[in-house]
Amino acid sequence: MSSKLLRGTFILSLGTLISKVLGLFYVIPFYDIVGAKGTALYQYSYVPYTIFISIATAGVPLAVSKFISKYNALEEYAVGRRLFKSGLLIMMMSGIVAFLVLYLSAPMIAKMSLAGEVDSGVSVNDVTAVTRAVSFALIVVPFMSMIRGFFQGHQSMGPSAVSQVIEQIARIAFLLVGAFIVLKVMKGSLVSAVSIATFAAFIGAIGGLAVLIWYWYKRKPHLDELLQYDKGTVQISLKDMYKEILIYAAPFVFVGIANPLFQLIDQFTFEMAMKSIGMEEIATDAFSILNFQSHKLVIIPVSLATAFSLTLVPSVTASFVENNVKNLNHQLNQTFQVLLFLTLPAVLGLSLLAEPFYTVFYEHVPLGTEVLRTYAPVAILFALFSVTAAILQGINEQKFTILSLLVGLLIKLSLNIPLIKLMETQGAIVATALGYLTAILINLYVIRKFAGYPFRFVWRRSLLIIIFSIAMILAASISYWLLTLFLSPESKFQAIIIIGVCALVGAVIYAYLGFKSNLVYFLFGDKANRVKEKLRLRI
């Protein structure tokens, strides 16, 4: 891999990481401003928006960058430029259409979300207003994703990374300042404050687009210079261009919308199910705890583990194409082991420390602790689905991703209401876990059948990782018990101390066992040695 590509990948990964970190920690001041009702309102609009934006843009930057880099390598620079010009127009039109559909369907989405007017402080009109406020971002984001893909196709990752960060900063700043001014200074309504918060997605998109336009004018002379070296031997129709783009982008769309679709099922059924068992008074708060507050924390270990695992997927593709069975099995072994090694201790730790974590990010709420403790282990399934879907793409069986997702969603849809009636909020979590588990089992079966992959070695190594995780969680549990003798997880400051000490104890035990058993060397190779040297570990 060239140093330029390595540098570009690092820059883009760093930009994505910064955006995710900002997207996590803004919830602390936001929750303080708008409370549980406000975050529920916010989530009612944001889940449909996420699905719309994923359908409109998921995979577009990657698909466009792959297409352009392919023809650039052939010195057919004009092909990529032609795609870019027509693509901008198409993405602008698709953005406007998506905006109109979401804006006009907002009342229907609100009614489905609340099962009519629910006596919990949130009305259909409220959800309609905040959904329409967020829909404006759809006008800009697809257009912006096309420009990002164009730059990435020229191995220029800086514009995408910087625009991502600026987009997130602009969105969060407008969201927090706007909501604060409306509620605390102007003494306005909660609906107005949350509408400002959702409209912040449009402001963020404008900020990100401004950065990309600046980069375009700055780099246009160089990009125009490349056209002088165009061979002009390839003639490809726009129809064939977009066919190639869609084939590559489609799997990313389905993986991208998987989690929002599961959340949407909760959004359309949760209030109704809770109302049927006489729990309408807490339905909105419980929905906020499940779909916004706990979900934000559960996604943390998923993002880290999936990012590490997916870096191995290109080599899976190469091994499969070359029919190198030995190498393919090795790469799959590593992918699954890295995923489990990183995710399992993280989710167990989050489950153990659910009470202090929830207190630090939001406030001390017994239901929040209970939901987060149950929800945290489901993160393993989120990560596994994402990685198995990526592997299916690597072995050219991505059509089964659609099948597994549809079956998983059917399981979730069938069981959600009965389980909520039986177990209240916990029932929605169990239904999600069963839906994801079914989808993953289908993916694993397809991987075994078409890649001829035996899971025996992974099962044995997984047992070792589970033993290490149990040892880690026992040590952290003892630390937690001792600390709670004189510290309270109900206090934000004391909760931070509890998290810090328990996390440190758990990490030390887990790292020691990993290095002592040589497991980290098998999984990460030279990277493990570099970490050991930097930390000056003597294991």
Description:
- The protein is mainly α and 539 residues long.
- The protein is 85% helix and 0% strand.
- The protein is globular and about 75 Å long.
- The chain has helices at residues 3-25, 27-57, 60-73, 77-114, 124-135, 141-153, 158-185, 190-227, 238-276, 280-310, 313-321, 325-352, 354-361, 366-375, 379-394, 399-423, 425-451, 456-483, 492-516, 519-524, 526-535.
- The protein has a domain at 1-236.
- It has 21 helices and no strands.
Features of this protein?
single chain, 539 residues, mainly alpha, transmembrane, Polysacc_synth
Secondary-structure map with pairings?
Layout (H helix, E strand, L loop, with lengths): L2 H23 L1 H31 L2 H14 L3 H38 L9 H12 L5 H13 L4 H28 L4 H38 L10 H39 L3 H31 L2 H9 L3 H28 L1 H8 L4 H10 L3 H16 L4 H25 L1 H27 L4 H28 L8 H25 L2 H6 L1 H10 L4
Helix pairs in contact: 1-7, 2-4, 2-5, 2-7, 2-8, 2-9, 2-10, 3-4, 3-6, 3-9, 4-5, 4-6, 4-9, 5-8, 6-8, 7-8, 9-10, 9-16, 10-12, 10-14, 10-15, 11-12, 11-15, 12-15, 12-18, 13-14, 13-19, 15-17, 16-17, 18-19
